[in-house]
Amino acid sequence: MALKVLSVASEAVPLVKTGGLADVAGALPAALSEHGVAVTTLVPGYPKVLAALGRTKEVHAWDKLLGEPARLLAGKLGDHPLLVLDAPGFFAREGGPYSDPSGKDWPDNWRRFASFARAAADIAGGAVKGRKFDLVHAHDWQAAMVPAYLRFAPFKGGRDVPSVITIHNMAFQGYYEAAIFPKLGLPKAAWSVDGVESYGGVGFLKAGMQSADAITTVSPTYAGEIRSAEFGMGLEGVVLARSNRVHGILNGIDPAEWSPASDPHLAATYSASKLAARKRNKRALEQEFGLDRDDGPLFVVVSRLTWQKGMDVLLEVLDHLVGIGGRLALLGSGDAEIEQGFHAAAARHSGRIGVRIGYDEALSHRMQGGGDAILVPSRFEPCGLTQLYGLAYGCVPVVSRTGGLADTVIDANPAALTAGVATGIQMNAVSYQALAMAVSRTVDLFGKPAEWKRLQKNGMKADFSWDASGAAYAALYRQLIEERG
Ligand code: ADP
Ligand code: GLC
To answer: Check: CATH 3.40.50.2000 for 275-461?
Structure first.
């Protein structure tokens, strides 16, 4: 019999997405079904989600979930079961999943996502008739209170199920003042260093890490990095204390969404053996971004414009990039100052730098399909997906050697070039010097068409499917269920 797993995430493709978490939550059900695991996904009922649902059925209701009435709707996420928490007091708002239309975090985020986790713990415990689960898999701080509720305040008379917390990004921890503790509906025993207390406040991610049966993160290198203060961001002590429970499992990519041979967003589809067709996409992209038409290297960026992503350093390197014959097409949004910086660079280098501020899924595909190289100079990167899409699309990744970037790109150093296995360019810790050098190396390699083509083909042939990671999650689930007996 298939294992039944409840996957709890605050976003999931195609319903709602602000970043890689949505890609992963959306891909997990298919990835795991191959390995005898039936995943049901639980997401919050934001207006966009409810609008996209189509036919639904109410399967449960709460009079009060952290103070607000809520109901549970059942629908479909592709071919897989979906549950949606419809709690209008928390989720029926214009704006993003976590912030108001001006970009400011909702002040009651703690209550919104505690209610989401409370609901998930009830569901996992068996509150919903006819739905039984063997394990709960919670993602990031927004779902991190699920293991804490299961441990300290489980559904009365319910099943005792194990839980997994996946850290997609340690930089977001859901940290709140101590005053919210009494409102969470947890017993006093939960207020301890081994529970939800964190540096004198309430830490959602920390609570999840202390309470879950296993902690996973999205690459082996990041799983090692978060043991240090630099990457652990205050929670390295918890990682170390529970290190025999910490696993690094690399994200895969969903071939139904990301395959150049069948991508409906591209002007021309192509494959590793038909790379010439890619040129049409490059021409289309140049036109779309108002760039000069030429055969020199076209760099692309698809990213949140933040410090994590090294975008401030990229701004400093742009004059060098253009000076050595490069062009850049950038799609992203984030910090106002960085956005301004890119606008200014585009004005300074008309025809060489094109900038689109905003979020555009279709354009992000066209950029992978038409760009020559994708820049990902992150200061830290738990996994990173855009370099994986770049590899699959023959858009050579230029990345920093950290987290999942270190685990997925093979640097074109002399040994790798001689062995014929290189897939991209890596740089050491992000700095002006390192990025400028990486950009120069890229331009040099691009000038050697045979070597460049080899890089593209190696990347396109590499396996970034979910096969191995789906099996790793399934094995972990089975082990945890067995442990409970
Ligand atoms: P993170 O989740 O830290 O932002 P990832 O690389 O894991 O980084 O995932 C980012 C995801 O969001 C990718 O699917 C990427 O294509 C997408 N993305 C980022 N910025 C944009 C944007 N401005 N428009 C469209 N897609 C974007
Ligand atoms: C986070 C990380 C990113 C990772 C994604 C999906 O947003 O920043 O590196 O790829 O989650 O796991």
So the answer is: yes
Paired tokens of 98: 């976590």
CATH number at 3-252+466-484? 3.40.50.2000
The arithmetic mean of pLDDT across residues 145-156, rounded, is 97
pLDDT band at 1 (very low <50, low <70, confident <90, very high): confident
Rounded distance from Cα 37 to ligand 1 centre (Å): 27
Query: Which DSSP symbol is given to 104?
Result: P
Q: Ligand 2 atom 7: the closest Cα is on which residue?
A: 20
Write the pLDDT tens digit of every residue in 390-449: 999 999 999 999 999 999 999 999 999 999 999 999 999 899 999 999 999 999 999 999
Closest CA to 154 of 180, 187, 203: 187
- Cα 21 to Cα 169: distance, rounded to the nearest angstrom: 9
Residues 124-157, buried b or exposed e (16+ Cβ, 10 A)?
bbbbbeebebbbbbbbbbbbbbbbbbbbbbbbee
The mean pLDDT of 303-318, rounded to a whole number, is 98
Degrees to nearest 5, angle at CA 290 with 286 and 294: 45
Q: Which ligand is nearest to the CA of 257?
A: 1
CA of 170 to the centre of ligand 2 (A): 10
Q: 360 is written with which tokens?
A: 């555009």
Question: Given ligand 2 and candidates 385, 408, 409, which is best to mutate, with the most ligand atoms within 8 Å of its CB?
Answer: 385
Q: Is the pLDDT of residue 95 over 90?
A: yes
pTM for the structure as a whole: 0.97
**CB-defined site of ligand 1, < 6 Å:** 19-20, 23, 302-304, 331-333, 359-361, 364, 383-386
250 pLDDT more than 80:
yes
Q: Start-end ranges of CATH 3.40.50.2000 in the chain?
A: 3-252+466-484, 275-461
Q: What is the pLDDT of residue 56?
A: 86
